[in-house]
Write a structure and sequence with these properties.
The protein is α+β, with helices and mostly antiparallel strands. The protein has helices at residues 58-67, 74-88, 146-151, 175-183, 196-208, 213-225, and strands spanning 18-30, 39-49, 93-106, 113-127, 130-144, 158-169, 230-240, 247-254. It has a single domain, classed as Urate Oxidase (Roll). The chain has an 8-stranded antiparallel β-sheet. The longest helix is centred in the first third of the chain and has 15 residues, at 74-88. The radius of gyration is 23 Å and the shape is elongated. The model has no long low-confidence stretch (mean pLDDT 94).
C-alpha cells in the first residue's frame, strides 16, 4: 500500500518563520452563555510556524473547534487555545470568535420579554507562554443631549448610540455582566420590544439622564476602572446624531 505524502511536514529551506498561519471565516454554531441562546459564530484560528516547517495542518483547526461542545467562556477559551497549540505543535497562537450575542431583556413596566443582540468578539492568545484574553462588545444605547434639554422650551434631541468596549481581563468575566454594567451608564437602555407604558418610561428616563458622548465614555471608564479583574480597556462611543448628518465620537484608552 502506497503512503500518502505529508508535504506540509517537510523541511522548508527559506529560513523564514511565519507569525500566524491558520484559518479564517469558519462559521459554526456556538454557545457564549449558559443562560442565553446559541449563536452562529465566525471563527479564526492561527498559530506560529517555525522557519523549518513548510506548512501547518489546516484540518486540525476545524477538527478541534467542531469537536468542542462546551459553552465558550473565559476558562474554556483558555483551554481551547492551549489545546490548539498542542495539536498544532506550536508555542504561540490565537483564537478569535466573532458572533451576535442574544440577551433576553425585560421591558421596564409591562415586563414583556424580548431579545437584544450585541456584536461580540472573544480573543484568546498565547505568546511567550503567557495567555491573554480580550472581550470586545458593541452595545447600542440611547443618549440624550444635555445642551438641547437645557436650551429648549420642551423636548431634547436624542439618538441611538454605539458604545464599543474592548477589555483585557485577568479572570473570568461574564458577557451579560459587562453588558449590564455598560448599559447603565447611558441615558437609557434599549429593548427589543416595548409597550406604550414602557415607551413612556424610557422616553422620560432618558430625559432625566442626559449625557454628552463625553459623559458616556467617562462614566463607562469609571466603572471599568473599579473592576479589579480588568487589566486594561478601550471605550468608545459614537452618537448617531438626530439633528446632524454626522456622528459625535469619544474614546478613552486605559491605562
Amino acid at each position: 500500500m502506497n503512503t500518502i505524502a505529508d508535504v506540509q511536514s517537510t523541511h522548508d529551506m527559506r529560513n523564514q518563520s511565519i507569525n500566524r498561519v491558520g484559518i479564517r471565516g469558519l462559521r459554526l454554531p456556538l454557545r457564549l452563555s449558559h443562560e442565553e441562546q446559541a449563536t452562529v459564530a465566525t471563527v479564526a484560528m492561527s498559530v506560529y510556524l517555525p522557519a523549518e516547517q513548510k506548512g501547518t495542518h489546516m484540518s486540525r483547526f476545524v477538527a478541534l473547534i467542531e469537536s468542542f461542545d462546551e459553552v465558550i467562556d473565559y476558562d474554556t477559551l483558555k483551554l481551547l487555545t492551549h489545546t490548539m497549540l498542542r495539536d498544532l505543535d506550536s508555542n504561540a497562537g490565537e483564537i478569535e470568535i466573532q458572533a451576535p450575542f442574544f440577551r433576553t431583556k425585560t421591558a421596564p413596566i409591562s415586563g414583556i420579554k424580548s431579545l437584544m443582540d450585541y456584536d461580540i468578539t472573544l480573543t484568546g492568545s498565547i505568546e511567550n507562554n503567557l495567555y491573554h484574553q480580550t472581550l470586545k462588545m458593541v452595545i447600542p444605547v440611547t443618549s440624550l443631549c444635555p445642551c438641547s434639554k437645557e436650551i429648549s422650551a420642551y423636548g431634547a434631541h436624542n439618538q441611538r448610540s454605539h458604545v464599543t468596549v474592548c477589555l483585557c481581563s485577568a479572570d473570568a468575566i461574564e458577557i451579560e455582566e459587562m453588558i449590564a454594567l455598560i448599559e447603565n451608564q447611558a441615558s437609557c437602555q434599549l429593548y427589543g420590544l416595548l409597550k406604550r407604558p414602557d415607551e413612556k418610561f424610557v422616553t422620560e428616563y432618558a430625559y432625566d439622564h442626559p449625557k454628552f458622548v463625553e459623559d458616556i465614555v467617562r462614566d463607562v471608564a469609571a466603572v471599568l476602572k473599579a473592576e479589579k479583574r480588568i487589566q486594561r480597556f478601550v471605550v468608545e462611543s459614537e452618537n448617531f446624531e438626530s439633528i446632524h448628518n454626522h456622528s459625535a465620537y469619544a474614546k478613552i484608552v486605559y491605562p
